[in-house]
């Protein structure tokens, strides 16, 4: 089973920069998007009709938004955290037979950290939500989590220690999420790989020199570890200031992991 996640930073613009070619090439079972920046009816996707489409639009035009295209029909679909709605369109949860898939676009603390308190409260609620799901079935989480967790996850750690996305508070929330029973799948396979980034500033030559941050993730319930086949970063794919990330799962082992009992018992 192949899953793809991509912060497209405006889907209409990304479609004009090769999105459909990449989508067709990947032939994914599930393809998740963040920062679609769309309202209902503003785009018609020219993709294989075998995909179900689920969209969560932000109330504010041209802002945030998430989407999931899946060839496997979900049992249930939920939009948001505590309620089946949230104004910024940041979360979609699909329930399948053996696991939950959550795609998320985590709020940015902003350059001046004016939204840091909101961000930290949101992180608490998000972790609680994932733990509630994980108590029922294993969870796969993907998306732009807007944090470089460790110094290895960005090019210039020393110069960014007080900047949005690398503050001690944001990094601590990520640590607490992983400690709650989740794996960073890329680091599961490649714990020491350097220069592995998913986002680059639009400043001149930054991407060319690979001065980036790894802020897009596939996380998975720890008990899914035996079903993980590979996690990778498609850094060569353009079309957004983020690149796509990919997770491959062994479906047979996924079923076994899902039936093996709850980690919290």
Automatic annotation (TrEMBL):
Its cofactor is Mg(2+); Mn(2+). Pfam families: Exo_endo_phos. Keywords: Hydrolase, Magnesium, Metal-binding. GO terms for molecular function: double-stranded DNA 3'-5' DNA exonuclease activity. It comes from the Bacteria. SUPFAM superfamilies: DNase I-like (SSF56219). Transmembrane segments: none annotated. Residues 4-242 form the Endonuclease/exonuclease/phosphatase domain. It is an enzyme of class 3 (hydrolase). Its EC number is 3.1.11.2. PANTHER family: AP ENDONUCLEASE (PTHR22748), DNA-(APURINIC OR APYRIMIDINIC SITE) ENDONUCLEASE (PTHR22748:SF6). Belongs to the DNA repair enzymes AP/ExoA family. NCBIfam families: exoDNase_III (TIGR00195), xth (TIGR00633). This is Exodeoxyribonuclease III. It comes from Paenibacillus aestuarii.
